[in-house]
Design goal:
mainly alpha; 84% helix
Length: 64
């Protein structure tokens, strides 16, 4: 079952088998997206944390 069908079909109307298929498909798609995006997310996160720490150190230095 494709995502277009699931978007227009309320989950309550699906059979148990259809719901299991939809869930498996969603989980596969989520895992693929997660695997593809996390390296970039972690890189940006690390850069932001570095900048946050630098700003905090500068504030502490000025207060000392």
């Amino acid at each position: 079952m494709n995502s277009t069908a699931t978007a227009s079909t309320p989950l309550r109307r699906l059979s148990d088998e259809q719901l299991a298929t939809v869930l498996a498909d969603l989980e596969r798609r989520f895992d693929a997206l997660d695997d593809a995006c996390w390296p970039a997310v972690n890189m940006v996160r690390d850069e932001l944390l570095t900048e946050i720490l630098a700003a905090r150190l500068e504030i502490a230095r000025r207060r000392a």
